[in-house]
Amino acid sequence: MSVLARYNMSGKVALLSGAGRGIGAASALALAEAGADIAVMARSVDQLENVAAQARAMGRRAIVVPCDANNAEDVSAAVQRTVDELGRIDTVISVVGGSMPQPFMNTSDKDLRNAFENNVINGLRLVRECVPHLLAASNGVVGASSVVMVSSAIGHVVGRGYVAYGSAKAALDHAVELMAADLNPKIRVNAVAPGAILTEALEIVASNPELRAMIENATPLRRLGDPDDIAAAVLYLASQASSYVTGQIIAVDGGITTTNFNFPIADL
């Protein structure tokens, strides 16, 4: 098989959460472009319909699966519907999470619980529901099925204001390593850790020329990332191009080793 052919996802089915916009939508369309049929999950039906329509225009099967990632019954039903309508699940991409930055002393127990619920528990719940179907799709072939979690650079770099979010993403990164150990050898589990990416979450900062310049100047590659930068890494990890890769956190962050956006939090 040629190297380029390893990226071909024809005949495969990908289930993506958080796929209505941003990184999730870009990843869904990258997989569709590579040949995969897709099931897109999120709460925003209109956005999902737009993503699905673009995939169908490429000749792919695409279904819209409205789902609240916080609701276990919703997630279970979404996974089953994907199998019922598309026949299988070869790869699952979890693009859920988020947490508002704030000083540690303002971070409540509820903030911490929400951060871990949104960034760790919801993603692991989806993977757990998909595992029987991933095993079935692998047909016993080592590494044929794959899981890709979308983490964050703040899971391994340091900056003020990120205690809840960064701790949750660091936990997710280690969960990826531990899931890989549990699910070897038939299911590969990896993550992408994005840096500052031009999505809606960064619009307020990116629309301020001074703040944008500050972030870009603090990034070794001197620019903000694009959702397609992450989608390309997701495609690599979802496809057989990464058939000898598992338990890895792939940083796609412009080369940062510390955060490129420290919140202006005063010393105590």
From TrEMBL:
For this protein, the record's SUPFAM superfamilies field holds:
NAD(P)-binding Rossmann-fold domains (SSF51735)
> What is the name of the protein in this document?
Unannotated protein
Check the record and name the CDD domains matching this protein. Answer: SDR_c
Query: What is the similarity comment for this entry?
Result: Belongs to the short-chain dehydrogenases/reductases (SDR) family.
Q: Which GO terms fall under molecular function for this chain's record?
A: oxidoreductase activity
Q: Which residues form the Ketoreductase domain?
A: 12-200
Keyword set for this entry? NADP, Oxidoreductase
